[in-house]
Amino acid sequence: MSVLSDGADAPVVITGASSGIGRALAVTLGGRGHTLVLAGRDRARLEEARQAAERVGGSAEAVAVDVTDDAAVDAWLAPLSELPVGVAALIHSAGMVTLGSVADTDAAVLDAHYAVNLRAPYRITRALLPALERAGGQVVFVNSGAGLHANAAWSAYAASKFGLRALADSLRQEVGDRGVRVTTVYPGRTATPMQADVHRQEGRRYDPDAFVRPEDVAGQIAALLEVPPPSVVTELVIRPG
Fold first, then answer.
1. CB of 212 within 8 A of CB of 188?
2. 186 is a catalytic site residue
3. pLDDT bracket for residue 37 (50, 70, 90)
4. Is 118 within 8 Å of 141 (Cβ atoms)?
5. CATH of region 12-238
6. CA-CA distance, 168 to 162, in Å (whole number)?
7. What are the pLDDT digits (tens) for 18-33?
8. Strand partners, 89
9. C-alpha separations of 175 from 137, 168, 170, 178, 181 in Å
10. What local confidence, expressed as pLDDT, does residue 204 receive?
11. 68 forms bridges with which residues in the sheet?
12. Which candidate in 114, 122, 157, 186 is catalytic?
């Protein structure tokens, strides 16, 4: 049954669902019986994530979309925003990272981080707020340790993640009395394809066993979604041991 069908449960919308934490969320929440809308750029990997979510008991639809393409995003969100049952949760997991010093990094790289890591979550959240209100839903921003502490060579990424933190903090105050809860999750370095690419950029050997597992992050997000209102987990920090 389509998530847009009469009688369907209010869905959980996940961006960046084709890889890393987003894919882990699809499987974890699918295993808990959630109805899912999965978004990502890679159509083949997104379809694999959809199938994985359904194998463990979920109901899922996959939408291949570039979150920086305003027209495509608006077309995707229009029917979701009008769902009578609303949207149960919106989880922002899409992201990008390119390392480099301020001196050596063109402003276009900063613009790209802004577009993916901050502007897209802003637009998507804004479009789905009425649907989130109808369902008494939650917004989860998957941030980063770089959203709390900025280090050398991480300026563009950290700037976008500090901005994402501010977005979440402001939004929480704006919509809390309308029944929408807002959480920021700060995973430390997590064993994802993005982390492998970061290590390549840093010129270091990548050992996934040294980092947080995406399944563990997904499990904690699933748990915070189940905290009954009016309580809200405002921030969650996860670090490797």
1. yes
2. no
3. very high
4. no
5. 3.40.50.720
6. 10
7. 999 999 999 999 999 9
8. 12, 138
9. 10, 11, 9, 5, 7
10. 87
11. none
12. 157
